[in-house]
Model the fold of this input.
Amino acid sequence: MKTAARAPATLIAVDGIDWAAMLAAARSALTPRARGGISRWDASGVFQDLAAAGPDAGAPSARTLLLLYAADLAFRLRWQIRPALAEGRTVVAVPYVATAIAVGRAVGLPATWLAGLFAFAPRPDSRRVVHPSRDAPPAAGARDGFAGFVCERMATADRRASRRLLEETSARLSSSRSRMTRRL
Amino acid sequence: MRDSAAALRRKARRHFTDPSRPRGLLVAFEGPDGSGKTTQRKLFKTWLKSEGYDVVTTKWNSSALIKPIITSRKTIHALGPEEYSLLHAADFRHRVEQAILPALWDGKLVIADRFLFTGLARDVARGLDLDWVLRLYEPLLWPDLVFYFAVSPATSGKRVAATRMPTFYEAGQDVTHVDDPVASYQRFVRRVIREYESLALIFNFITVDAEQTIREQHRQIRGLFLDGRQRPWSDWNTDAVADWLATPGAARR
Done:
């Protein structure tokens, strides 16, 4: 009896600043043959809890936000990504490491610190960077994404500064390579 | 316009080496649970205030922003070692930026009831790589003095069990997988103490024999503080201060 050929376990990273476009790209990456799912940022609810904190708690710095993103990614790896890969499924991580590194670089954090922070994350089997639409301003689709969240927090009183950070993040994503991640 | 990194480093160095203003001092109390460091920290603070110091205390896992996030996840035993480590590093970073560095900048004396070495000892005891954990805490802020309260695993276990049942993560049950919290604590605290002893050698902690009487320890701490308080500003801290000065809230300084 013939058994149906099954696609091998695959981790696909979808990075970018336009959240809606990233989600669309993640859905299209899941072919009907590839059983699997999408792992979204803030699956652990850390950022949702953060948003609930009052102003007296003090605004988090970019470093603090990146540490929290790494904690959320560790959660996603433990509960979503690794179990699915162990079952031979395809997982699309949206976003993964590259977005966090690009936004960290855009706000001025050292590349070595960012690379070390995410050293626990396995290298994806394939990587897609979603570029923002040329017709829409970068902030338009970024609101619900991680990059938009950080840029807005880093430049709360200045929309133009927030937009510049997003543009810088997008430019860094376009020029980035997958060397920042490694397979465990 | 924002200052360049080099300008911020110069600003940091100039501020902390200016002889015309009182220099902030950072004193850390480290040790396993049950080592009596909190008792000593309170006695030390009372004495410092009586000596006229402007004292600020900061405790481990206490930032108003991150602590609720950690607490809710600890309650349901939802944290793996990496998440545990990263969330505590985030809590520490937030306190460094919001409480510790502002107080040091204003010339206050900061007592830290546990510092980043707690994260290192516990996380490495949980099986994480020391270099990776150390990197989470960069740019590193080094205390002027670190008092390490040394006790045996048996004493630590006895003192903790005498007052309360160790919590799930305190007992290291997430990594020992031992059902009995007291038995798990005994096993886990051995690993934590082993890591502390390595850190004490690497980072030159001042070791206090925490098996001595409370009075004797306090007398010793006073003497060690008086000897050590005149230490010059450590240039190792320039990066940490410059990094903080670059954050939006600190830019007003």
User: Anything to note?
Assistant: Chain A is about 45% helix and 10% strand. The first strand of chain A starts at residue 10 and ends at 16. Residues 178-184 of chain A have pLDDT under 50 and may be disordered. The helical segments of chain A are 19-29, 46-52, 62-86, 97-106, 111-117, 146-154, 159-175.
